Structures are given as structure tokens and as C-alpha cells.
Amino acid sequence: MSVIKAENITKTYKETAVPVHALNGINLEVQEGEFTAIVGPSGCGKTTLLNILGGLDHPSTGTVEVAGTNITDMKDSKLIDFRLQTIGFVFQAYNLIPVLTNKENVEFIMLLQKRSKAERDKRAMELLEQMGIADKANQRPSELSGGQQQRVAVARALASKPKFILADEPTANLDSVSTANLLDMMARMNQEQNATFVFSTHDQRVIDKAKRIVTLEDGKIVSDETRN
Amino acid sequence: MYLILAWRNIWRNKRRSIITIASITFAVFIACVMRSMQLGSYNRMISNAAQFFTGYIQVHEKGYWKDKTLDNSLGSSDTLINTIANTQGVEVVVPRLESFALASYGTKTKGSLVMGIEPEQEDELTKVKSKVVKGEYLTSSDKAVMVAEGLADYLNVTVGDTLVLLGQGYHGANAAAVYPIKGIMKFPVPTQNQQTVYMPLKEAQWFYAANNRLTSIALVIDKAKNTDRIVADISSKIDTSKLEVMGWRDLMPDLVQGIEVDNISGKVMLWILYAVIGFGMFGTFLMMTAERMYEFGVMMSVGMRRKIMQWIIVLEIGFMSTLGVLAGVFISLPILTYYYHNPIYFTGASAEAIETFGMEPAYFFSLEPSLFYNQAWAIFLMVAILGFYPLYVIHKLKPVEAMREA
Which of A17, B173, B183, B339 has an alpha carbon within 20 to 30 A of B105's alpha carbon? Predict the structure, then answer.
């Protein structure tokens, strides 16, 4: 079952004197359970594509279907709710809420989903345990290393039980050990829980772990390789 | 959790939040002190003016207040006096007959205000007995007068001397008599001190050939704030086609107008103070919005609705302003309570200068609840207006642009 279906996506930025064509006719379909890396040099359109697939931005032309729903022309307010229920996000800079504890950060998404306190508590602790940082539950993000913070961010992304997780350069700020740990943990989630991950990255260690590698250049897909 | 989040967000930048809260505290404190002094002084001026002379309420013959002549005096009756006295809130009824006469002694003559009073009732309103500096206070059966010190000095008379009074009585009758001076009074208001003669009401009615007539019935009431209600009650019981009932606002229009002008200038000062503080607060709101654009973008990306973000910002602003207001009130309350019970009195030349204007030489303070909650409302109103900026920013926020620009 495809969780993402993008057809003929283009994106042109017209704010500058010369229009910038960030994406030129992208066709991409991601199936449930895939572990996909979108790779390419800086400025090739990886982040723009992820933003459009995640409903954070609208394409200039083309259509995007997420979990069977066409989100291309969905209104902003509906898109916010749609993202909350359907998509998990992991950002390069972790972007945890600094004044909340790690557990509260994970719970927060579920609070937005209006889940009960008991359910929030239970699932937040489960996820932190799976990420190997349950003992840090009541600490603030600033008390953790970058790798640990990113694991909290992944736990937050998974907390909402999304159809898939979009991760924009998730290892860019991590050292090699933290990167390896994070990738192992995400690979395990992918295998054990059939969680779907789509990364943008130019980190070779992430590319090595990916089952599918989509390569972008100048806003176009130049290769789409699936590994066993 | 939203409350927790908002509360903790305030303390992200402790120094800035403390400065913002402190500026609100300072504004509320200064505003409370300024208003307390103003309102306290106004209340004192009103009560002094009422107690020196007019009373909080007066009943007259219709037209007397515009044309103060004996011909516009009212015919007194026990029924009328009892009706007024039995009105709820009326504590003392003070009948008066007042008119002018020439006061003369030896070769000196001066125009004077002759007040016919019931000595006991009058003392309950104006505390005139305490103003006797020489001789004795009147009794209702006396056939004597008391003279204000300034007038006595001018005429060069003292207790035991005989004063000649010459004037015009009711309906043009001649009014002429001589009276022994029983007492000398000293009033702080110069005009009052230089022209007043007191005599018992019965004697004044005889002198002016105005048997059983009164120019006014002044009232001592339980609370000044009940004036309007008591005026309405009395008006409903008496014949208002012949009589007029006036509250202190109508009796002392000059004082009321002076207070209103001063009050407006006080309020203008307050709004200038609030405007200065408001710019500081707006700076805080600008900063707390600008530095969190990326965070807002992320929150919206992961599924937080704008309304929830706005609600959290409202809570943050609400917490800060509430803390500032409460701190301002709690700091000002004990200070104002102390000065409410212990007014600041002037001494020496400055005290004398103020006294010549008929005012008490002191700063009086008020503890009216409105004093405090009005400042709170002013702060909350200002915050509500300034707080629109971050709410508008969030309303217009686009997550990708917010994250990119930040």
C-alpha cells in the first residue's frame, strides 16, 4: 500500500528576480514499511520535496496523495490536523521544546491529539524505553547529548502513530557513534513495527542503511534504487 | 500541560521576564500611589467642604439656591423636619436661617453673613464648637452672637462687647438689633473668617422677622456615597414643586469642577506612565515572538494548531501581566494602608500657605478598591492591545517560511 504518491510535482520560487525552479516534474511513490533516503547535493531540492510530501508547502503544479488523501490543495488549517494524525517529523536540529522534559516532549504530540493522560504516559514511556533513554525521561533536552535529543525527537515523531516519518537531515548534527545508534534504532523500528521512514540526507552512513535510495539533481529524480 | 508550557516559557529568559514584570509592578505601584493621593485628597476636600458648611445634602425653597434672599426662605414645620429626619441614612437635620447684615461697633462697620443656627445640630455637622477660641459656644436660648476672629479683629471687638446688626428682614422688614458677643470663632477659610456671625436660630428668625422660616435644611448623612439615593428618597416624600433637594455636587459645583479638572490631569499622567511602560512591554512581546519563529514553525509542522499556539502566548502574557499587577498591588497596599491611617501633614510656612486656600495642609490617601482594580484593568487592556501583535504573527505564520527565515 502506498503511503505517499507524488505526481508531476514542480515547485518554483518567484520571490527572487529570476524564478528558481526547485523541483521539476517529480514522480515518487513510497510504500508502507519502506526505509527511503532522498539524496543529492545541496540545493538539489531535497528539503523542498520533503516539505511538499509532508504538507508543509504546496507544489506549484502536480498532486500529492498521502495515505490516500489528496493534500495538494488542502487548506492550511486542515493540513495542520492532517499532519498531526498522519505524519511524524524529525528535524535536523531536533527542535524539542526546551522547557518541557523529554517525556513531556513525547507526550505533547499526543496531547494535541487529545489522548488521555494515562495513554500519553504509557506510550511516552514505552517509546523512550525503545529508544534507550527512559532514564532521561524527566530531564530537559538541554541535559542530553545531540544523539539522545534526536532519539527523543524520533520518539516524538512516532508518538502520534503516524503513517510515515519524514526526517530532514536527521544525522547532520550528530557524531558517528550517535549517528550509528540512531540509525540502528530507526532500522529496528522499521523492521519490528513496519514504520515507514523517508529521509533527506547526504550522510553516507544513512545512505548505507537505506533500503531505497532516490537521488535528486537540479530538482529532478535522476535515479531510484531499491536494495534487498 | 499548556499552562505548564506557558509558565515555563516565561522563565526561559528570566532576566527579560523579570524586567517586564518589574516594569508592570512599578507602573501599578506608582499609579496606585498617585491615584490614592488624588482620591484621598478629593474625598477629604469634599468632606471638609461639606462639614465646614454645606452638608452633603440641603433642602431649600425652590429658587433659593439661585437667588439667596430671605424672601425665598421656606416655611418650616415639624412634619417637614420629621419627614426628612426619618429618611434612611439621614443622621442629623441642621436647620439654618442665613442672610446678610451690616455689623458695626464704634466707628467701624462691615458687611457680614449672619447665620441663625440650632447650636447642637450645627455642631454635629460643622464642628463649630471646636472653632471657638475665646468665650463660649451658643445655646439655643441665647440672645447673643458669636463672631469670626477676622471680623472681630476688624471691628476691634471681643467677648462681652456689644455688636450692632443692621439689615433687611423677610419681605423688606427692617432688621436692627444689638447683641452681646458670647464667643469668638476662628475658621481656616479666610472669607468665612472675615465675615461670619452666628446666632441662635430663634433669635435670627426674630431679627429678620422671619418667624418659623428657614433658608436651608442641611443634612448629616451616614455615607457620602449614599447622597444620590437619599436625595431621591427625600424628593419622593416632599413637595418638590415648592422645595428643592440638592446633593453636594450641586451645592459645590466649583469644587466638583476643580476636582474633575485635576482628576483628568492625574489620569493623563497615568496614561503617559502606562504608555512608557507599554513600549517596554511591546519590546518584550516583539522579542519573544521574533526569537521563537523557528519554534512556532516547528510546532505548526508537527501539528499544533494556530489557536493553541496563540492560547499559549495569551497565557504567557497573562501570567506576566498578572504577576506584575499583583506585585504592584501587594507592594502598594501596606504603604497606602499606613498613610491612609497616618496622613502626611505639612508644617510651617507651607502649611499656612495651604490653609489660606481653605484646605487642610496634608496629603490624604484613599483605599478605595476601585483604585487597585482600575490599575489592573488598565494594564490588562494595554496588554490585550499590545498582545495582538504576536497573535497576528502566529495567525499569518507559514511553517516553512518561519523555519527558513529563522
Answer: B173
Distance from CA of A96 to the nearest CA of B (A): 9
> B245 lies in a domain?
no
Domain count for chain B, please give it: 2
pTM confidence score: 0.72
Residue B57 in any domain: the answer is: no
Q: Of B239, B269, B288, which marks where a domain is finished?
A: B239
Residue B118 lies in a domain: yes
Judge if B72 and B195 occupy the same domain.
Answer: yes
Q: What is the tens place of the pLDDT at every residue in B127-172?
A: 889 899 999 999 999 999 999 999 999 999 999 999 999 999 999 8
Query: Which ipTM did the prediction report?
Result: 0.82
Residues in chain B with CB shorter than 8 Å from the CB of A97 are: 5, 295, 299
Tell whether B154 is covered by a domain: yes
B106 and B216 inside one domain: yes
Query: Tens digit of pLDDT for each residue in B331-366?
Result: 999 999 999 999 888 888 877 777 666 667 788 898
Between A76, A80, A95, which is nearest B303 by CB? A80
**Length, in residues, of chain A:** 228
Q: How many domains, in total, are found in chain A?
A: 1
Tell me if chain A has a CB within 8 Å of the CB of B19: no
Q: Which of B214, B239, B264 is the last residue of a domain?
A: B239
Domain that holds residue A132: 2-226
Domain that holds residue B303: 2-49+255-405
